[in-house]
Design brief:
Number of helices: 12
Shape: globular
Largest sheet: 7 strands, mixed
Number of strands: 18
Strand content: 15-25%
Structural class: alpha/beta
Strand order of the largest sheet: 7-15-8-9-12-13-14
Distance between the termini: 51 Å
Order of helices and strands: HEHEHEEEEEEHEEHHEHEEEEEEHHEHHH
């Protein structure tokens, strides 16, 4: 293998991060203690959250609706041609992850998730083919999953069901008359677009998945049929990180600067494809550099408009001019093609297994404390499954921070937020972002997320001692020592010591 100095330095950085911040995996027969956590989902977030818990000595059980092949969540189900669009330095969902390159493919991502699952002994703590339909608390505040006491009792719940469930497969008018092939963007393994005219319906993240397939299989041409304009940003780590530095998490008077730079330096002659209504900091942008290259090479086109229906040889499409809203007037054309890829996304998994009171207005997801803790019950952490739009990444250090915040709240009553103050934080954030084009919690940036974490720790002096643990996983003996002292006090008062069952 040819020596690559940049990758060597990157590997060295990852080695140091692993040694400094990875919690020690428990021994195979280690007796893990309370609080005991129920993890719902064995995807990237569930496996990462569980590894942080057991690495700090706390017991977990992972409940996964699928079989063992489902470890990895959405990454276990997408195409082999799919890969990471952002640089892997922004996708470090656990300190022990070792990426081989900057933009790993689907196989490498699933491999890293599976290795993490095995490294922390989670195969012994995972219940496969167990769909969670209810999570409720008994009178003592202990969580019971699916009303099944054989699972034991839990002190907290991490909902890690993600935002991508089953594929959306809408049926469109006259779809059965189309003579070509129709596939969902997640079902392209074993297929080929070589020499074909491909029509991609949709302009979001699923369209990126379809574009990867088109590029890999050498399609003759590609037409992306998008209902709305969406910001497209380059596949460049520096650009992506700079955009995530907008700590306000919304459009500001300076937003025109990155928007103009993108138009002039990235869109260039294709500036007409840039949105006119929505600003850059209002919706999750597409991260892709191939589509503009394909358009400039006349191998692809981006059409703005509405689907009228299928025809025998393609799609009947009402093409709209720039600035005309969805459903507005336009010119109807037929876009011919041999293959249609439905880049229509995925259904959002339900959180209906949680108690109904956590969804009460006006504090409903994503309007929760730090976006993931419902004010009515701080022992629930909906990690990575309540966000709507963002610039940053869903697979980074925040997974561990959220998990350790939950552990702090469960272990230390003085650090635990009260419902009143959780609601006041939500109200304050809503006020600060009241001028945002979106809802206060409908869009955020990664730097805003870090600000939330810092504020959470700084506002309460009893949390200061937890800062190294929450932010870096350092000082794991502290929570265990607090648990030990609590048990001593309970025993001194004649109370029975609680054990996970």
């Amino acid at each position: 293998m040819k020596f690559h100095p940049v990758l060597w330095v990157y590997s060295l950085i990852q080695w140091f991060l692993d040694k400094l911040f990875s919690p020690t995996p428990p021994s195979p027969k280690a007796a893990l203690g309370r609080p005991r956590i129920a993890i719902i989902g064995a995807g990237l977030t569930g496996v990462s959250s569980a590894s942080h818990c057991v690495g700090h000595g706390f017991d977990v059980t992972i409940f996964e609706a699928g079989d063992e092949k489902s470890v990895g969540g959405i990454w276990s189900r997408v195409n082999n041609t799919s890969g990471l669009q952002i640089h892997s330095i922004m996708y470090r969902f656990h300190p022990s992850i070792r990426w081989a390159d900057g933009y790993p493919d689907r196989q490498q991502i699933v491999s890293q998730i599976t290795q993490l699952w095995k490294r922390y002994g989670l195969h012994e703590r995972t219940r496969f083919e167990t769909r969670v339909t209810s999570a409720r608390q008994d009178r003592s505040g202990r969580w019971i999953i699916n009303n099944d006491l054989s699972f034991g009792y839990f002190d907290g719940v991490v909902a890690a069901v993600g935002t991508c469930g089953d594929p959306k497969t809408p049926h469109m008018p006259n779809q059965e008359t189309f003579k070509g092939e129709i596939f969902h963007s997640s079902k392209l393994d074993g297929k080929t677009a070589a020499g074909k005219k491909v029509l991609i319906i949709g302009g979001g993240a699923s369209a990126v998945e379809a574009l990867e397939f088109v590029v890999h299989t050498n399609a003759a041409s590609t037409s992306v049929l998008a209902r709305s304009d969406k910001w497209i940003i380059p596949r460049n780590a520096l650009v992506d990180m700079l955009l995530a530095l907008n700590i306000f998490g919304q459009e500001t008077i300076f937003s025109w600067i990155p928007e103009t730079l993108l138009k002039k330096l990235f869109y260039r002659s294709l500036e007409d494809l840039a949105p006119t209504s929505g600003g850059l900091f209002t919706e999750t942008p597409m991260v892709n550099s191939d589509i503009f290259r394909q358009i400039r090479n006349h191998n692809a086109e981006w059409l703005r408009g509405d689907i009228v229906g299928f025809s025998e040889n393609g799609i009947r499409f009402r093409q709209r001019a720039k600035g005309v809203p969805k459903g507005g007037p336009g010119r109807e054309i037929e876009v011919k093609g041999d293959m249609v890829i439905m880049a229509t996304g995925y259904q959002r998994p339900s959180l209906s297994f949680l108690p109904s009171e956590v969804f009460e207005e006006p504090y409903h997801p994503p309007k929760w404390y730090l976006q993931v803790f419902p004010p009515r019950n701080v022992s629930i952490c909906c990690n990575n499954c309540t966000y709507v739009n963002a610039i940053g990444t869903v697979g980074n250090y925040h997974i561990g921070i959220y998990t350790r915040l939950l552990l702090m709240f469960l272990v230390d009553p003085l650090a635990r937020p009260q419902e009143y103050w959780m609601k006041r934080w939500i109200d304050m954030t809503s006020f600060l972002k009241s001028k945002a084009p979106t809802g206060a919690f409908d869009f955020f940036t990664y730097s805003e997320l870090i600000y939330w974490f810092v504020f959470c720790i700084a506002i309460n002096p009893f949390r200061w001692k937890w800062a190294p643990f929450v932010f870096f996983g350092i000082g794991s003996v502290l929570p265990k020592e607090i648990v030990r002292r609590e048990d001593q006090i309970r025993n001194g008062m004649g109370m029975t010591k609680r054990h996970p069952e």
